[in-house]
Design goal:
Helices cover 37% and strands 24% of the residues. The protein is built from 4 helices and 6 strands; from the N terminus they run αβαβαββββα. It has a 6-stranded mixed beta sheet with strand order 3-2-1-4-5-6, sandwiched between helices. Helix 3 links the parallel strand 2 and strand 3. The longest helix has 19 residues. The radius of gyration is 14 Å and the shape is globular. About 8% of the residues have low confidence.
Length: 148
């Protein structure tokens, strides 16, 4: 799933990316693609639950050093996704990832070489406008209620 997320940041992003995260355990994997996107003038935001443990804090520092804007939230959105170009409906897409639970991954779609504990799917505006609009509203809501 990391490979798909990296590809989206490296080749699909036109304006912005919002990453909905948990502990950001993937921070090292995304450091270079985020830095590259920011250097190309793209806005990258990471929405994550305010964590007290050191691993999450270190991951947040890695992403911030790459140029991402951090949006800590009071509660975990439980959404693990990447929202691309939500400002422009015709270009917007959403990449959602589910982690295996109780030995059963929610199989949204996967590719050879993907981590079998995860399943992911890319949604595009033309077919899935309601889902992308909902993710956009969630981002707007949590970004307005940032932990300070």
């Amino acid at each position: 799933m990391v490979a798909t997320g990296r590809r989206l940041l490296e080749h699909e992003i036109c304006h912005s990316a919002v990453l909905f995260a948990g502990d950001m355990s993937w921070a090292q994997d995304y450091h270079v693609p985020i830095m590259s996107a920011v250097q190309r003038g793209k806005a990258v935001t990471v929405v994550y639950p305010e964590e007290k443990h050191s691993a999450a804090k270190e991951n947040a520092r890695v992403l911030e050093a790459a140029g991402a804007t951090l949006v800590p939230t009071r509660q975990d959105t439980r959404l693990r996704a990447m929202l691309l170009d939500h400002e422009r409906a015709d270009e917007a897409m959403l990449y959602v990832v589910n982690k295996e639970r109780d030995g059963q991954a929610v199989r949204l779609g996967s590719r050879p070489g993907d981590d079998p504990a995860y399943a992911g799917k890319i949604y595009r505006w033309k077919e899935d406008a309601l889902l992308i609009s909902t993710a956009t509203k969630l981002y707007e809501f949590v970004a307005a209620d940032v932990v300070t």
